[in-house]
């Protein structure tokens, strides 16, 4: 058609698609082995334009479409694994060249993004520092039965507890109170309820905004045996079940007084035997701190 399309436009609306297959090794001699599609990972590429660090972290592996239709799985049950990836421009200046080229062919990326992802922090440094209150609420945790059982046991032990642990910005690591799980859905899944939100006051600064724009908050789910509420966690006997990762970029928007991130986030962990259906509901809000 003669219309020019630049890399910036393509990255803004495209995605990287990974197909994960299982290749059988012990098939019959006369039969050609058939690879089995385990799931698909779709990663939007727009973060290559927004984040200096590019695409990195865990992304969910979703059931193939034919199995999704037949099983009618919910959002968490449709996630059968996780893929940890890292994709970034080789040279830091490549992002700027992509934008500059986009401008020359008529694509105004400033109309697409409300915030300038390449803007230096000069204007932020001139802005007086204000106190911000970050409220993190994690009302519900869902886990498969297998991740709640102690080694060698077939039933949920009454001395098993769960807690959350995370480190926000430059603060010391914090952990929630220990909570007992309750079995649901025919005793195949469990749910843990955390009632008390955590509030932290931070001073606004260029480094805090950089943290919101570039980093993901990792919330770890730990299993404990016994309720020693005064001990510093984790103990040597505690076991890491998995982590939920929250994109904090919406908290860096300057156009709103109250910024929020909310959703149900799957749990990931390297070499985990089974985290199917494991998820954590998370609400994060940033508001001006009161006097």
From TrEMBL:
GO biological process: centriole elongation; cilium assembly; protein localization to centrosome
GO CC terms, sorted: centriolar satellite; centriole
Top-rank taxon, per record: Eukaryota
PANTHER family, per the entry: C2 DOMAIN-CONTAINING PROTEIN 3
Protein known as: C2 domain-containing protein 3-like
Organism: Thamnophis sirtalis
């Amino acid at each position: 058609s003669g219309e020019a399309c630049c890399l910036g436009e393509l990255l803004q609306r495209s995605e990287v698609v990974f197909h994960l297959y299982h290749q059988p090794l012990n098939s019959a001699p006369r039969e050609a082995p058939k690879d089995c599609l385990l799931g698909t990972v779709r990663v939007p590429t727009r973060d290559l334009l927004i984040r200096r660090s590019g695409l990195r972290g865990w992304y969910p592996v979703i059931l193939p479409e034919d199995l999704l239709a037949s099983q009618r799985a919910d959002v968490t049950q449709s996630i059968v694994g996780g893929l940890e990836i890292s994709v970034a421009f080789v040279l830091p200046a490549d992002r700027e060249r992509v934008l500059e080229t986009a401008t020359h062919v008529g694509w105004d990326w400033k109309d697409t993004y409300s915030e300038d992802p390449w803007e230096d922090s000069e204007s932020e440094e001139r802005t007086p520092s204000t106190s911000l209150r970050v409220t993190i609420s994690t009302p519900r945790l869902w886990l498969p039965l297998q991740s709640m059982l102690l080694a060698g046991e077939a039933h949920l032990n009454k001395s098993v507890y769960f807690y959350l642990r995370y480190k926000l910005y430059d603060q010391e690591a914090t952990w929630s109170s220990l909570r007992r799980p309750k079995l649901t859905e025919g005793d195949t899944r469990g749910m843990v309820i955390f009632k008390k939100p955590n509030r932290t006051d931070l001073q606004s600064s260029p480094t805090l905004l950089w943290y919101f724009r570039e980093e993901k908050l990792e919330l770890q789910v730990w299993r404990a045996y016994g309720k020693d509420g005064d001990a510093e966690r984790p103990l040597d006997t505690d076991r890491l079940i998995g982590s939920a990762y929250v994109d904090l970029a919406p908290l860096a928007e300057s156009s709103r007084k109250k910024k929020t991130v909310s959703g149900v986030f799957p749990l990931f962990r390297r070499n985990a035997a089974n985290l199917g259906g494991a998820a954590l509901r998370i609400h994060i809000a940033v508001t001006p701190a009161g006097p």
